[in-house]
């Protein structure tokens, strides 16, 4: 499963990408607004920081305006993926941009039916939001498995990008359900490295090694 960072902090992204474990980046209008910077500048910086796909989201509500914004965002760098909401207009725009050969990410997906439509619209990625479904008492993780089954049934090539992941358990569930990628907040990505038994085991190894008086 590919790992994307859900962040607008290019410096942090560059730092974490140096691990060789970051395959791409996603952003959304809320993250860009919180950064209080121009979306264009943020996307250009991130695309310079990572070679993988970088999702940049349109903010228009109507298909023609989404298409115009999508073209503008895609022109910023060759690794931009145009992110579009899962609405009627978003899917019309997705079909049009896909026909132009642009990569697309259909976001705010909360059902199998929506994911089916995204695939039929030629989306490169579909983003089911696990955490937000859990917030409303649904099982977000099971949606990933259901979409996997439907996409495999019909050999759809749209990649499942598990989004709104909030915990290590979400990452595990997405991977077990066959998600192609998961996008993680920076803190969650960092948390994936850790396990208390790794820390205590390493501590004991070092104590025992020091006591042996050996060197390598
Ligand atoms: C990624 O594409 C999404 O914008 C992101 O995962 C949303 O996460 P949130 O539900 O925690 O805001």
Question: Count of DSSP helices?
Answer: 11
CATH fold-level topology = TIM Barrel
Residue windows where pLDDT falls under 50 for at least 5 positions = none
Ligands bound here? erythose-4-phosphate
Estimated radius of gyration: 19 Å
- Please state the second-level CATH architecture: Alpha-Beta Barrel
Summed up, the domain count is 1
CATH class placement? Alpha Beta
Could you say which overall geometry the principal axes of the C-alpha atoms support? globular
Strand order of the largest sheet: 1-2-3-4-5-6-7-8
- How large is the share of residues in beta strands? 15-25%
Percentage of residues assigned to helices: 40-55%
Q: What is the N-to-C succession of helices and strands?
A: EHEHHEHEHEHEHHEHEHH
Q: Can you identify the CATH superfamily?
A: Aldolase class I
Counting copies of identical and different chains, the oligomeric state is single chain
- The count of β-strands is 8
Q: What separation lies between the terminal Cα atoms?
A: 36 Å
Secondary-structure-based class equals alpha/beta
Mean pLDDT: 98
Which sheet architecture does the biggest sheet show? 8 strands, parallel, barrel
